[in-house]
Design goal:
alpha/beta, 16 strands, 14 helices, 6-stranded mixed beta sheet, Glutaredoxin
Length: 475
């Protein structure tokens, strides 16, 4: 037994030993995934949606335990974050079918039947051939919407249809049949879409059709003509690449508007059908979330999921009943551009959506896991607030100290200025007295010198006289 086989054996053995129908994966899954087929739920223990899905996931594991060779498992992304990153997990829960190097992510409703149907489709052939009318009848009972190629196997349209199936087989239900199965179809080859208890032919010429044209038409027809708008169906509706024509039904007396909207949708008006996918929603909760506004009910709006623009038939509460002509007139004006749009993808709207989405995420987080939310959000918020408070307090304290020192310095400067203003006057007086005394002293010195000079002269004269006298005596 090689290492890969040993890894999968160990994982399955311990899971079966614990009498679990769902395997708990770890890092060994990097090698084990290459062996066999896997249906894996990537989850986080704190995620409320993961907790809601857990009972259904156990039912899926129990149902598939003996029906198909697929290992139903789950991976805790908080413990093995690097492994979940390798699989491109960006949200919780994420469901993927893994077979070797092929990975297919499930995006449908989180119900047992839908998840099992996805697994069967991921395992099975991308394109199923119907061999008789009985198989066609069973297919119509099983699928509310599916596509059927009618024609010979060697046509160009058959080749194009097969290449589309390689790309969209997980999203669309695609089948093929010979012309004998559908004798009512006179022109073949062609592609039919079965829905709403009837079928419609591809409005394209089989002679000049291209893959892009066929793909666009099939995506636009992948849903019934009248659908319920929910959180799960939003992405499927968006996949039609049409604007949503939504009947916003009031909680009371909603049937009359529902009937009118369904009649318009199923009539497949050539002006409206290529532009709109018709749907309905009960109450204003969902519609307010996607428009980020408050929509009065009953109402009828058009919403563009690519630009977030929307058009409202009624801007305020109007008690008059909506009639069919009101809706058709409103849709015609939207197509002709006679009604101003609201919402959009401007900077203000993006900020508004970001704030609203973030607020909803935080609120739901606290509702589903209050303890974990308090630890994850509350503690960091408290620490950051405390640090900001400390920084602000320190800045105020330093500013106060600096201000006090400045005041002291200013006071000392003022004193010095006062002293400097007083000292020069004192110094001036002193200098005057000094200079006066110096002058007087100089005068006295000059007189003294004059007297000394005079005395010296007198002494000299006397000495000369004495010298003369002595000279005379000597002679």
């Amino acid at each position: 037994m090689n290492f890969k086989s040993l890894s999968i054996f160990v994982i399955v053995f311990y899971a079966r030993l614990a009498n679990s129908v769902v395997l708990e994966l770890d890092d060994r899954f990097r090698e084990a995934k290459k062996q066999g087929e896997w249906l894996v739920m990537f989850y986080a223990p704190w995620c409320g949606h993961c907790k809601h899905l857990e009972p259904t996931w156990m039912e899926v594991g129990e149902a598939m335990k003996n029906t198909m060779p697929v290992h139903v498992a789950r991976l805790d992304c908080t413990k093995y974050s690097s492994l979940s990153s390798d699989f491109g997990v960006r949200g919780f829960p994420t469901i993927k079918f893994i077979s070797g190097d092929n990975e297919y992510e499930y995006r449908g409703a989180r119900t047992k039947s839908d998840i099992i149907a996805f697994t069967l489709k991921a395992r099975g052939p991308k394109l199923t051939s119907l061999t008789n009318s009985l198989e066609l009848t069973k297919t119509r009972e099983l699928h509310s919407v599916f596509f059927l190629y009618v024609g010979n196997e060697d046509s160009d349209l058959r080749e194009i249809y097969g290449s589309v199936a390689d790309k969209l087989f997980l999203t669309l239900n695609m089948f093929a049949a010979s012309p004998d199965i559908m004798p009512d179809v006179k022109e073949t080859p062609t592609v039919l879409v079965f829905k709403d208890d009837t079928y419609f032919r591809m409005p394209l010429s089989s002679q000049s059709i291209k893959k892009a044209h066929l793909t666009h038409w099939m995506l636009s027809e992948q849903l019934p003509d009248y659908n319920e708008l929910t959180g799960s169906s939003y992405h499927s509706l968006k996949g039609t690449h049409k604007q949503f024509a939504i009947a916003v039904l009031a909680e009371k007396d909603y049937k009359y508007l529902d009937t009118i909207a369904k009649d318009i949708a199923t009539s497949r008006n050539p002006l409206f059908h290529p532009k709109f996918i018709f749907c309905w929603v009960l109450g204003d909760s969902i519609i307010n979330k996607i428009t980020y506004s408050s929509i009065p009910t009953p109402n009828f709006i058009v919403f563009d999921p690519s630009t977030y623009e929307y058009f409202t038939m009624r801007s305020d509460s109007d008690e008059t009943k909506i009639v069919k002509s009101d809706i058709t007139r409103f849709l015609s004006k939207v197509i002709e551009g006679e009604i101003a749009s609201q919402g959009g993808s401007g900077v203000f709207q993006q900020i508004k959506r970001f704030v609203s989405d973030t607020t909803n995420i935080v609120i739901n987080f606290f509702k589903e896991s209050p303890i974990v939310a308090s630890l994850v959000i509350g503690i960091p918020t408290f620490v950051i607030t405390f640090l900001c408070y400390c920084l602000c307090t320190m800045e105020d304290s330093e500013a106060g100290d600096y201000h006090t020192d400045s005041e002291n310095d200013s006071g000392e400067d003022d004193k010095e200025e006062e002293e400097s203003e007083m000292i020069p006057e004192y110094q001036d007086d002193t200098d005057k007295n000094v200079r006066k005394r110096n002058v007087e002293q100089d005068s006295q010195d000059e007189e003294s010198q004059a007297e000394e000079s005079q005395d010296e002269e007198e002494q000299t004269a006397m000495d000369e006289d004495d010298t003369k006298v002595e000279t005379k005596k000597y002679k």
